[in-house]
Amino acid sequence: MDNKSPYTEEERKIIEEEGLYFEESKEDKNKKIIIILIIFIALMSVLTVFVTLSLVRNNNNPDINIYGLNYDADGDGICDLNCDTNNDGRADTNIDTNNDGKPDLNITYGKGNNPYFNIDRDGDGKPDFNLVNQTEDGKCKLNCTDKDGKVKTNVDINGDGVPDINIDRDGDGVPDTNLPYGDGTEPVFNVIDKDGNIHNPVNKWDGDNSKSNIDTDGDGLPDINITLDEEKDPYLDVDTDGDGKSDINKDFDKDGKPDADITLPGGKDPIFNVTEDGETPTKNLTPKTVDGEDFNIDTDNDGFPDTNLDIEDKNYCQLNCDLNKDGKADVNLDLDKDGVADTNLVDTKPESEDIKELDTSKSEYNILTFKDLVTNNKVLSPGFTASKEFVLVNSSLNDIVYTISFKDVKNNFETSDLKYWLVDMSNNKVVTNGRVTVPKNDSAIVKDIVLKSKEQHRYQLYFIFEETGKNQDIDQGKTFNAKVQIENASIVN
Fold first, then answer.
1. Which of these, 390, 361, 359, 362, lies nearest to 483 by C-alpha position?
2. How many folded domains does the chain comprise?
3. How far apart are the first and last CA of the chain?
4. Does 205 map to a domain?
5. Are 103 and 125 contacting, i.e. CB atoms less than 8 angstroms apart?
6. What is the domain-level CATH number for residue 485?
7. Which of 261, 280, 283, 279 is nearest to 270 (CA)?
8. 3-class secondary structure per residue, 2-23
9. Which one in 264, 374, 375, 376 has a CA-CA gap of 20 to 30 Å to 210?
């Protein structure tokens, strides 16, 4: 054994003692090295062929490239490249054919999934309709892209060869006319009519001051004091203090509806979706649900809540309250949208000053006396409303059944226009049959209600003298008086 053995002296002695010693000759080693090199070269050749074929395949099938399917370049959760819209494993839109990170085929516009540009109609993998970067005299005239490959100016939405939106008239790369809002496809700002007049202009001037649709970053698109209707005052991304930043009605997603720091129409202070960091709403969210009750409902889908308005974030309705759950405001109507109720005024604030403890050992009649209800000789006129909350508590060890009734009724109204209804505030349910005409005689409001031991029931009793639009003079001087009482409180058998 020569001095070039791979084993140490100690290892060699052990191997010799155990009869395991074997060492290749120098010639054998050289042969093995040559074989290994040949195998390595062969594998690298195969790998090279494989990679080459893969790249060719990527070019022919651009849905399988270095970016893969459904590539989200900016991390916003929206696909930017090689988007598979039908989940068939192949890219349908924004296909990158040359691995440069920019869409080349079936390019969409905005956040939609419909291709508008470089559409491949014949399936050969090459664009043949509504091509991008169409030039004339060395300048881009139609569907001009930016550095990210997105169509930015002179956009032809309908493929007729004529730009529809974001038209760059002076060739500076900044859109000048027919500007859409956000990712829309319809022109909203700087719209040119058939006579060449511009409507709803960006940087609309009022004397020496820019009043609406102000472009703060010089990209040709409005950023603050936005109005989508030139006849209206600014209502999106409104700058109230003149610092060049929006304070109210912030439209983060550019859909034409406010998302944060929302005011009442015409207001200047944020009330709904109020933000503390300028981005994330944390207070008086719209809409919201508290204990099964829905607040700040937007019934007309304009981004501004209009029904069951909780303007003070107190988890009860102050304006435009829908008490009978028919989808229409009934009480505390704010007709002029100034944040103050104008008609059908009702105190909706939950109170528990009128608490009646049910105890079968007491008198048969448990009378609730209301100091500010309609029964206390108030002057009534059409449109009058009143309400009162009361709470029934069962402090006994037994379940109790009871009835709520009108007692000692005095009613000489000629018409049926004076009505009442009772709401179970525990589950926000109207327990009467809608609005009911006040009775002429003593009568039950609700019967045989079970109140479990150590629990309570909270009610709100409402009255309204309905405005009919007709002459109601026949009820002048008429009166309604009654007591509300709990009757027949007894132990459930």
1. 390
2. 1
3. 108
4. no
5. no
6. 2.60.120
7. 261
8. CCCCCCCHHHHHHHHHHCCCCC
9. 264
Contact present, 197 and 205 (Cβ < 8 Å): no
68: number of CA atoms within 13 Å, CB side? 4
Is the four-CA dihedral 368, 373, 379, 380 of positive or negative sign? Answer: negative
| CB-based contact 145:137 (threshold 8 Å) | no
As averages over each run of 10 residues, the pLDDT of the chain (493 residues) reads 58 57 52 60 52 40 67 81 87 88 87 84 87 88 88 90 89 88 83 88 74 86 89 88 89 89 86 86 89 88 91 88 84 84 75 53 50 50 80 76 86 90 85 91 91 82 88 84 79 75
Report the alpha-carbon distance of residue 412 to residue 103 in Å, rounded. 80
Structure tokens at 151: 């169509």
Cβ contacts of residue 485 below 8 Å, gap of 6+? 365, 366, 367, 368, 404, 405, 407
Domain of residue 425 covers 355-491
Supply 165's token pair: 């939106």
Residue 29: strand, helix, or coil: helix
CB-based contact 492:400 (threshold 8 Å): yes
Contact 314, 242 (CB under 8 A): no
Q: Are 359 and 395 in contact (CB under 8 A)?
A: yes
Query: 467 lies in a domain?
Result: yes
Flag whether 151 is in a domain.
no
Per the listing, tokens 């129409």 go with 265
3-state SS, residue 462: strand
| 368, part of any domain | yes
Distance CA 220, CA 153 (A): 11
Among 112, 91, 90, smallest CA distance to 103 is for 91
How many residues in the chain?
493
| Cα–Cα–Cα angle for 170, 176, 179, rounded to 5 degrees | 150
pLDDT digits (tens, 9 = 90+) for 75-90: 777 888 898 888 888 8
CA distance 290 to 271: 17
| Composition of the chain by helix, strand, coil, percent to 5 | 10, 30, 60
Contact 348, 335 (CB under 8 A): no
323 φ, ψ to 5°?
-85, -30
pTM: 0.53
